[in-house]
Every structure is written in C-alpha cells, then in structure tokens.
Amino acid sequence: MTSQTNRTVASVLAEAAATAGFAPSVHNTQPWRWRVLPDALELYAVPERKLLSVDPAGRLLTVSVGAALHHAVVALAALGHTAEVTRFDGPELLARITPGAPCEVTPAAMRRVQQLRTRRTDRRPTRDEPVHPDDLTALQRIVEEHGVHLHLLVGDQVYELAAAAGRAAEVEARDPFVQHELEFWKAKTLPAESLPETPVRSTVPNRDFGEHGRLPIGEGHDGSASYGVIFGRDDEPATWLRAGEALSAAWLAAAERGVGVLPLSGVIEVDVTRTALRMTLSELGYPYLVVRLGLPDSDHAGPPATPRMPAAQLIDTSAVS
C-alpha cells in the first residue's frame, strides 16, 4: 500500500475504493460505484449491472456491494485508518465510510489486504481431506460478527442441497432470458482460464457454463468439502448488505487458513429452490448464498484473476478533483 506521508484523506479514500475493486461479485458484474468526498467515501449500487433475470430482487447485487464495502474497510486498515460505516436503505446509496484517526498498521491488516489481492474463485474439485473443524468454527464466528449466520450442512442436508441445486440448474437451462444474461456476463468477465478443462465431479452440482475452459484439474471429488449457507433472520436489503460484508470477511480469513471458498448462487436464484433451502434450514431464516469450503488442489496451478473494470468506471472523484 502507498505511504501515508502528506497524503490527503481523499487520496487515501480513493485508494481504498480502488482496492475494493478486487471484491467478489455475482457473475463478476462488479455492481457498485464509489463517490470520493473530501472526508468520506460513499458506496452506491449500480442498477444497470443488476442481473434482471437471475437476480430481479437485487439480493445478490446487494451481497456483492456488501463485499466491496468490507474490502474498502480492510484496505483502509492497511492504509492506517479506522473506519466508521453508516448504512442506508438505498435503493442506490447503500453505505458511507468515514475514516477515523490514523492508526498503527498491523501485520494482520497487511496480511488481510494481501489475501484480498490474491483471492480467487476456484471451481476445481477440492482435495480428499476435510477442512479442520477449528477453521470451520472460526469462519462461523466471523460471519456472526457481521450480524448474519453460517449454517454448515450435515448428513442428508448436503443431499437436499444437491437436489435443489440440480433443480435450479434445470429451471435456468429452460429460461432463454437467463441463458442470454449468463452468456453475456460470461463472455465479458470470465476467461476460459478460470473454467475447468473437464467436467467437475461433485456431490453438489457446480454451475454449467455450457463449455469447458482451460484450467487443469485433478481427479478429485468434493466429497470432503463442507457446504454452508449464509442466512439471516429477515429478507431485507440491509441484511443482504451485511451478508456481503460477512462473505468478504470469511473469505479473507479462509484464504489465510488455506481454505478455498466457492460461492454457489444458483440455488438462490430460483425461488422454488431457495424456498426448499429455507426448509433445509428448518425455517431458521432466509438464505442469501451457499458456499463450498474445501482444501484447494495443490497439484495444479490455481485460476488466474478475473478481469476488473477500470477504476474510472467504478470511482467518481469529481467532488475532490
């Protein structure tokens, strides 16, 4: 990160916004826009990047924006600033970050921002070795700190998830509008080097992109992976945003522990399968996202970084120019 000597607050905020561009988002749509002010950073949802067929309610869009929000806070910590976050109901303005007084840059803050830059979505099979229970418990605790929950599926619940994911894939395969939308964003933001070169053997079906890529994979299966559902007590945008913050925090912590995270949004995108997933949760709450947690393939190089929009398309600095 850049040295803070003689820097303006606005320049620090602009750098944090640029770093937040590494955040994960639904189908890599990056549906956010930052507005840099002299003493604050505003975060907006961008309706033009909402997936109208896949995500009509904007649930996954808002989760994505929440991930960017947390990424910016992580970046500020590595730039030597605490951050106060004010959240709004939208529909477009979702959060404002006000930097606090300068603070010590800790090794932990630097590790988190490094994980932020190197994090990848890895669709390959996981190793035939389970994630350590202590790591799973730590990830649950981190999610809880953000006001939502991570339920780890056990026993038959995994097969219920598999059935729901399979049905969601069938429903979306029959919808030409969904297929057109997915094809558009795949061509725009998902290089062939990020897609496995052969079909992935898995208990819970991964998304079928209609073609194979160029990412080498081993002979593994996801039988040792764990599956979790990020959920909350209501189905409101404010909680979706917090779910995105929780996803980001848990993903960075998982990366530091050598655990791979694969978001599975298909079952959330179809109303009937999302309802089925809620029943799997015994109606404890509303599911926002499914994640696979596993140990990555260590015999093959991981996927490359996916393309990111230029900072000028994501950050408005007109108020400080």
Automatic annotation (TrEMBL):
Which regions are flagged for Basic and acidic residues bias? 208-218
Report the superkingdom from the record: Bacteria
Region labeled Disordered — which residues?
196-218, 301-321
InterPro entries per the UniProt record, alphabetical: Nitroreductase-like (IPR000415), Nitroreductase/BluB (IPR050627)
Q: Which GO terms describe its molecular function?
A: oxidoreductase activity
Q: Where are the transmembrane segments?
A: none
Q: Which Gene3D superfamilies match?
A: NADH Oxidase (3.40.109.10)
Stated name of the protein? Nitroreductase
Whose protein is this, by species? Catenuloplanes atrovinosus
